[in-house]
Task: structure prediction
Amino acid sequence: MTDKIEATILANIQRLSQALEEEKKMITSTDGAFPSVEGLKEVIRFANNIFFPDLFDKRRNGCEIRSFYIGVAVEKLYSTLSKEIARALMFGTEIREEEAFRRGKELAAAFIDTMPEIKRLLYTDVQAMYQNDPAVDNCGEVILCYPVVRAMVHYRVAHSLFKLNIPVLPRILTELAHSATGIDIHPGAEIGEFFAIDHGTGVVIGETCIIGHHVTLYQGVTLGAKNFTLDSNGHPINVPRHPILEDYVTVYSNASVLGRITVGRGSIIGGNVWLTNSVPAESRILQRKPMATTFIDGLGI
Amino acid sequence: MTDKIEATILANIQRLSQALEEEKKMITSTDGAFPSVEGLKEVIRFANNIFFPDLFDKRRNGCEIRSFYIGVAVEKLYSTLSKEIARALMFGTEIREEEAFRRGKELAAAFIDTMPEIKRLLYTDVQAMYQNDPAVDNCGEVILCYPVVRAMVHYRVAHSLFKLNIPVLPRILTELAHSATGIDIHPGAEIGEFFAIDHGTGVVIGETCIIGHHVTLYQGVTLGAKNFTLDSNGHPINVPRHPILEDYVTVYSNASVLGRITVGRGSIIGGNVWLTNSVPAESRILQRKPMATTFIDGLGI
Amino acid sequence: MTDKIEATILANIQRLSQALEEEKKMITSTDGAFPSVEGLKEVIRFANNIFFPDLFDKRRNGCEIRSFYIGVAVEKLYSTLSKEIARALMFGTEIREEEAFRRGKELAAAFIDTMPEIKRLLYTDVQAMYQNDPAVDNCGEVILCYPVVRAMVHYRVAHSLFKLNIPVLPRILTELAHSATGIDIHPGAEIGEFFAIDHGTGVVIGETCIIGHHVTLYQGVTLGAKNFTLDSNGHPINVPRHPILEDYVTVYSNASVLGRITVGRGSIIGGNVWLTNSVPAESRILQRKPMATTFIDGLGI
Amino acid sequence: MTDKIEATILANIQRLSQALEEEKKMITSTDGAFPSVEGLKEVIRFANNIFFPDLFDKRRNGCEIRSFYIGVAVEKLYSTLSKEIARALMFGTEIREEEAFRRGKELAAAFIDTMPEIKRLLYTDVQAMYQNDPAVDNCGEVILCYPVVRAMVHYRVAHSLFKLNIPVLPRILTELAHSATGIDIHPGAEIGEFFAIDHGTGVVIGETCIIGHHVTLYQGVTLGAKNFTLDSNGHPINVPRHPILEDYVTVYSNASVLGRITVGRGSIIGGNVWLTNSVPAESRILQRKPMATTFIDGLGI
Amino acid sequence: MTDKIEATILANIQRLSQALEEEKKMITSTDGAFPSVEGLKEVIRFANNIFFPDLFDKRRNGCEIRSFYIGVAVEKLYSTLSKEIARALMFGTEIREEEAFRRGKELAAAFIDTMPEIKRLLYTDVQAMYQNDPAVDNCGEVILCYPVVRAMVHYRVAHSLFKLNIPVLPRILTELAHSATGIDIHPGAEIGEFFAIDHGTGVVIGETCIIGHHVTLYQGVTLGAKNFTLDSNGHPINVPRHPILEDYVTVYSNASVLGRITVGRGSIIGGNVWLTNSVPAESRILQRKPMATTFIDGLGI
Amino acid sequence: MTDKIEATILANIQRLSQALEEEKKMITSTDGAFPSVEGLKEVIRFANNIFFPDLFDKRRNGCEIRSFYIGVAVEKLYSTLSKEIARALMFGTEIREEEAFRRGKELAAAFIDTMPEIKRLLYTDVQAMYQNDPAVDNCGEVILCYPVVRAMVHYRVAHSLFKLNIPVLPRILTELAHSATGIDIHPGAEIGEFFAIDHGTGVVIGETCIIGHHVTLYQGVTLGAKNFTLDSNGHPINVPRHPILEDYVTVYSNASVLGRITVGRGSIIGGNVWLTNSVPAESRILQRKPMATTFIDGLGI
Result:
């Protein structure tokens, strides 16, 4: 390291060590506690061991021993999750450390109380994917391979934490799935049984969506907001602003369904369609035909 | 842990330990053997060392020693892959363990017999990307950086295993690439030489696609099915249902090409187009123009 | 291993050990040095510790000790980055090893000199996301959860290296973010302050884009080229070919904006629109309405 | 690498690849299976979790959940140990793979059947150390810190495997403890309850030793053979050749007790003594006094 | 797993899950907190970085940056050690969790206050070894290679914690060094400047030893107790019972020096000697000569 | 962290950041390069794969592939060792970096040239242990379990490096074995074929020892110096000062053989003996008998 380089580095360390005004304002937390992404990955790992014990934990051999494995997985999930909840409470809200840890334990137990129902729902999702796909031979293959299963495990766990009013963690969980699958489901959305997404990359499901049973989406579908309601400071308000999809609706690839509209039971929305008004039950909505041309101007590279 | 929390946890362990009816039915395997995602990641690591020895294994120094490295990589790939194939056979089919391991070894060797051809094809793909991109300086950069190369290594390996009728593994392999790149190529698709995908996020290539030589796709392109043929139980049948793209076809971003149609040699399909009928050679297909407006209703957030 | 299998394996080792003609030609480097993806991941890890010290490095406890942590992180970044730059120089260009390491050190110091400005810009991006999103409670949540922050850290670091004419590394950095977020920003693009992308999967921003301040994009937006200018050998030339977005422009989901056009200050481009010509300030551009139909032909699966 | 260096390396690879005559003869195993040191370390880790659940597995919280943890640890120990036994059988004896794995499972279960007794004995050893040591405050400290506890866990597990006639593994286990503690107990030795070794470095206890209850040894003590009985080929024969120590015997530091002699109940053998004949109960044996001198010849550096 | 094996395993899980009476009594701790060996290994790693920054942390480049590295290492040591002290307090004594953590922080800071003196002493030990050994070329080699340096770092750190009345941790620290080096120094012993041990395996230094400056020991030396003083229950009492070695004493290999005796300044104790009474300054003590014989009875194998 | 604690920590960081005078003087190295213990552990790992390919590398399956594995192991050993030698040269001597790396490569190749001979010698050592031990069934067990094999691999590699005048590394290698086995062999010692050490803890073999063929040692044996020759500054001189053991000598446990004496061919030295003068061929040397006593004064605890 030459003297000139050392001088440059030392000068910048000084500049970088001074907190920006924005930096000082915006992050506050009781005693420097932050939720840990690693911790949440562990929570999902334990949850997978519990929901799909034959697939994700190979050491099970017999019935009774299986329950020991599940017992250990539940206890470890409890222990990791209660810590992460405590940190999330201290990160997002004013709370004493002791109180945060006490609440973390209660809320982790409350979450565990919802796990049997989450498991039941996940198996309906697996069945939905299995029935939709002509190529699949085996439900185990769906669980092992399909991105939608990963997305739904994360979403259904995150949604349960969201309903318990736990801050920050639900969003981190769904963003982990978003990164791995390209499927972005807000933890606040309500999704019924037998939900299927094929391929999935680019799917976005907004915070106030309500989705019925037996709904199927394809890649690139947006269930989004049409526009924002602003408060007097021009800051957007969190009101119902995403679509309602009734039972047995199907939305094909890259379609956008926008605003607090209702897509009636059994409707089919075609690919690349851009829909901003409600449609009655059993509707069929299609994009207009493209045109053929001899000169092509603008390729969309 | 308070008594109330402990009681909640114990009650739920009991409930979660009881296998659901669906769970019992749907996953069956000879003696609890499941393919391992970690094992398949190793297979790809060894394959990369073999296909691109200068880039992925830096310890090579001279010509003869290079062959030792490749020898070891091939032997390790054989050993890991034969085990994974055996597990996949036991997972997807009724087979005795011993027979599965014997078949696993034969099929792994059969796969290795296709590796020189896979390597040849991959270098045509690298060249295609290199020739398409004005920014790239260096083929090594393509191999190191471009998601399409990762997607094609996974796909071409998976396709070879698919043609050997090995269950489950091909799909796990392409889903690993899908997760990392957003490019979802079904291992059953047939793809010719000099294949290029730019950017790639959201590309979907269906199981029965047939793609010629020198074809280029851009991000968000779907080569999908128009609709399903159902059997008498309403379950979709696995028949040819995805497009045929002849040599020198280009499809621009977010276009959807659907159904068992043929896109003639040298055709160009414009961005965001939604095409469901065959077009002759040298076609040029464009989306209709958007409209300008002063009032905007529905933003697609 | 049977004799037949061993013979197959040995024969293929021999075939795979012979370098292809293309292989020999295309990868050249001074003494087998290649940039390391692991090294660049470390650089980003150190950069995150420096930009967001409270979030990514929990061991800080007081003001002065914080500067020690930042000092160490800067020095480690310097040491790792200077090696990676040296390798990139030897990979992409003819240069002696000693010279490469000397230049690597200078360029790493020059990069560190830009880090305070990168940090300032990143905090404007965080604020932009915070102001756009009705759901978010807390800027720290934006930094922890939102894919756009990860994408922008990678892009702003890569862009700074790009402007220092460092080869290969900028592209590897943005592809790492592309893989994790589905957001593909070319390191050559120019992007102003307070930049926001919501959801983000499928966004593509081309090499010669120029983007003003306070611009917002949604998922699936392409800012691409309309067509290529070819040189006399038919190879595309690297000229300005991507759009200019002036300040306060918003582009909604899956829209494609193509070619060296200008989108005027304060314009809004609607979802799924495909735009290939310049529009004046405050424009509102919308897709044509879809049609309802009773027969649906082509679902875009 | 210069040409000369490459030639040297290649020539030596050739020489090193040719198996020596001794090499070919001496190692034989069914299909290349060898016991794995890593596997045995896992076995000990699981055993510690089972014997000292409060100390080595911190996640236990309540009584019932504790049994889940122990259940999982026992099942994992079974699964790892049965594989290692199968490999040891194939390594040391002529046996078919299938038979080896079947026997491995039976023997692992037979070992587990001895674990409650091993646990009981280990707690007597802990108590013995606790009562001997004026400095120790707390039995947990003995378990956490004292090398003798590690040595005795390894020995008592190894001795149980030894009595089940399992080859190779017992010796690997005691050598692992030997390396970590300097205490070398042959797995064939018989050792009673309440056994203590203080400091321990250099202690050697031979294969045919018989040690009663409440025996205490200090560092450097050898309980060895006086001489060997040779067979007609001059190879030593495995006959009783190490001492018998009756109950309540104490042997102080660096003493050597040699041959098939009996040290009577309650005897004390002083430090640095070299004893080769039996002594009656309650004996007191001491080294002769050293001499003072003005000239020192030979320092024993 | 056959039914019979499963039954065996389940029965033993039940038996192993029942805590022994001894087990219940002997380990008590506030809320299951135990000191962590991994944590203490980290403390030593940080301490080595602080004491020998040039050798154990290679990333230092210049003077000011060196102080950043030391600052970070000290802060990490503080943070890890304060947690381990808190756990040790809860393990060994009745104390509330909050109080334990508060005390842990105070005591960790008090320890850091002794580190400059520990560093000074360690460099005198390194010099002593360097001056004793005809083979060594370089003090850095002593620090990198010699087991005594490892033993003394552990001992001097442990002794400082011992004097702060911190339970359990000092002993774990010296046992870690004992395992790695065969040198067993009780943390309670008092050892002066310029202390050297050559080879070291088997050295034992008891709790109440007092050792002056410039003392040198060789392998296998015991500085032990002659006998115990028992209390009315027959439990040994912790009184001064180990030797005092004045300045410039040397003790050669395998000698035992026992009881609360004084070895006068400048004395030399020969190899294999067994000494139980005080000797004046400048003494020379030797073992009696061995005898030659034609018949050898007892080999000490 | 309270203000008082923070002040303490900051003050000590300042004190600890100032290099001691001794510290500044004693460690010098070209550009901060130090040999790496991790690197040397890798060298030994590769060496074990080369010497015992069937035992330490389980992936070998057939004859030709075995040579690939050995080829790769030799090349990796070359690459790691040449770097470590370069660092050792820069650590111990004044040398330019470039020159150090050039010499490192030459010396690593020169070392590889000695590996076939080292391998031959190691197999004689294994046979010697096998013939000495009545308990062992299988030479593979000797290689897997016996500490002497580990010690001899380290020693024979270190001795070869020592004869090539490579500084520092030989000593680090033998200290690694010393720590793991308690056997301390100086890399300068000369040791013949068929060398055996049983148990081994506490064995010390000095730098200028010369040991013939078929020599056997037991635990605790010291082959040491009787006294030092000092130079005019009182610093000890490195002259021949350790014993010569002729062929077929055996030395039993805890014996000390000291000074430049010769133990004649075929001699047996009994346990605990302390020998400082030469003995003729076929000598038998024994310790004097201990005495029995009723009062025991000094137990050597």
Q: What stands out?
A: The first strand of chain E starts at residue 184 and ends at 185. Confidence is low (pLDDT under 50) at residues 294-301 of chain E.
